[in-house]
Structure formats: structure tokens, C-alpha cells
Amino acid sequence: MKWITRERPKIDRIACPWLIKRYIDSDAEFLFVPSKEVLEQSELLRAIPYDIPDVEFTHYDDQCTFDYFVKRYKINDPAVHTIATIVRAADTDRHDLASQASGLWSIFAGLSYNIKDDLELLEIGFVIYDGLYSWAQHLRDQKHTNHPSEQLLVEIYNRFLSQKNASKKEPSWVEDLKAIIQDQIDTNIGLSLEEVSQSLQIHPSYLSREFSKYFNNMNFGEYFRKLRIDKAIQLMKSTDYSLAEIGYLTGFSDQSHFARIFKKLHGIPPGTYRKRLQQ
Predict the structure, then answer these.
(1) Which of 141, 191, 204, 209 is the most buried (most CB within 10 A)?
(2) Helices (H), 46-142
(3) What is the per-residue pLDDT across 47-82, written as a single tens digit (0 to 9) for each?
(4) Among candidate residues 2, 47, 44, the one with its CA nearest the CA of residue 21
(5) Which residues contact 76 (CB under 8 A, 6 or more apart)?
């Protein structure tokens, strides 16, 4: 079988090929292409797409693509299930689920920075997952300390802190996303979910699902439409541009689309709003 996904693989997009090779098809071939080309190339090359939105092998709810492979192929190996939790925690930025998650993320982030050949990165990733599998199968209860009781107390303390702060702490990607929005809103008003996902190295399905929790209970599309309308209001106040020109400058396809979204958010058409500003 051939499998295809987005280029520059990291945690989940390396874990899935490792699982396929070890449990599903030892002769499997893996292809990496730009995100926008995955579906087109999958048809041309007769390859199965994975870890992109709107395909079978992808994220579901709080589960990542690796989880789906495990479920789909009924893999019952306890060590694989242990790895699945670590992969999910690292890939969805929920490091409280597994203490190994931050380390796994750091390793693959560093490897991706150093290695530009995706197939070479995949090969090295397999070695890492083989090591993680051996740890999960044989060594997970072994502690690197001569004081196991002390280690246990430290683990309990850290678990208490993580539970205490879990409801307050925003994932690190939220701050990064706010910075991206601040940097690009004036020059890239049509910023897409896919672009943001690539910049943050977060799966688009996960970002889409979690976005509203940290951005005024709005989904990605609603939030960016609001930003575009806010920008339009700034232009109404500071320029003599026509409404058609303002709609174009803020990324709307035509004036009627601009007027419809504006009225939905503010209850009145943009022309009426501008007249009130001038009074």
C-alpha cells in the first residue's frame, strides 16, 4: 500500500507510518507532499491519505490519527496503547496526559529543524519509536533513580500541580496564535486555518475544535470575519474609501457579502453605520 500525507512530518505523521510498518503492512510506501496537494496526489498515485482533514484516517474528537489506526486495525498490544497516549498528548499539546509528551515533541521538533529530507526524518523517527516501544513493553516501571519513594512523591506533587492548574493554563499554541494574528492581520486579512495550522505545527482538525475555547466562543471563521469587520470600521473612521473599496481591502468577495456580514455582527448595514459615525 501507498500512504500520503503533509510534508515535514513530526509526531503523529511519523508514528502512523511506524505503526503501519510494524503491524499492518511491512512493505508500505510513504509519500510526503505540500498540504494542498495531498488529495490530488493521492488520486494520481493511488495512495491513501492520512492525517489531513476530511479523510478516513485523521483526528476524531480528542483522538489523533495514530489512535484511529490502532482502533481501525484492532491493535491490542498494551505497549502500543501506551505509545498512543503519549503521541496524542504530544500531538495535541496536552502534555498533562503523559509525562513523556513534552520530550517527544521536543525531539521531533529538533529533528525536523535539522533534517530537511522527509524520508530521512521518517527513518530516524522509526528508530525513536522502536526505542519508545521497547520502553513501553519492558521498562516503563523502571525509574532512573536510587530513591523510588522520593520519585513517587515527586510524581504525586507534579500531578497535583498539573491538576490544580489544568483549568487555568492555556495551551502554548494559543499565545503563539495570538502573536501570528497580531503580526499578520494588517497584511494577510484572509489568513486561513490551514496556514495557521502549518505555522503552529498543530493538526487543523484539533485547532478547529479547540479554537473557540480561547477566542471569545467563536469558531475560526467567525473570529476572522469579526477581525475583518473591525478593520473595515477602522477604515470607515480614518479614510474616504467607498464601501466597495473597504469590502475589497478587508477580504470580502463583493460589497453585498461585506454588507451581509457587517449587518449580522452590528445589526445595521455598513452604510447606515458610516452615516452615524459622520453625525
Answers:
(1) 204
(2) 65-72, 78-91, 101-114, 118-134
(3) 999 999 899 999 998 899 999 999 999 999 999 999
(4) 2
(5) none
Q: How many CB atoms lie within 10 A of CB 262?
A: 26
Give the residue carrying C-alpha cell 519508545.
Answer: 132
Using alpha carbons only, what angle is made at residue 272 by residues 268 and 275, rounded to the nearest 5 degrees?
145
DSSP 60: B
Cα–Cα distance between 128 and 112 in angstroms, integer?
13
What is the grid cell recorded at 112?
525536523
234: three-class secondary structure by DSSP: helix
Give Cβ neighbours of residue 251 (< 8 Å, ≥ 6 apart): 189, 190, 228
Please enumerate in sequence order all residues whose Cβ is within 8 A of that of 74, keeping only pairs 6 or more positions apart, or say none.
none
- Give the phi and the psi of residue 192 in degrees, each rounded to 5: -105, 160
Nine cell digits for residue 133: 516501544
Q: Which residues of the chain form beta strands (DSSP E)?
A: 2-6, 29-33, 48-49
Residue 42 has which C-alpha cell?
493521492
Question: Dihedral sign, CA of 160, 162, 163, 169?
Answer: positive
The pTM assigned to this predicted structure is: 0.59
Helix %, strand %, coil % for the chain, to 5? 65, 5, 30
Domains and CATH numbers, the chain: 2-162 (no CATH), 172-278 (1.10.10.60)
HEC per residue, 108-119: HHHHHHHCCCHH
Q: Is 169 exposed, middle or buried (0-12, 13-18, 19+ CB in 10 A)?
A: exposed
Place of cell 447606515: 272
Of 214, 209, 223, 211, nearest to 261 by C-alpha is: 223
State the chain's mean pLDDT as an integer.
Answer: 85
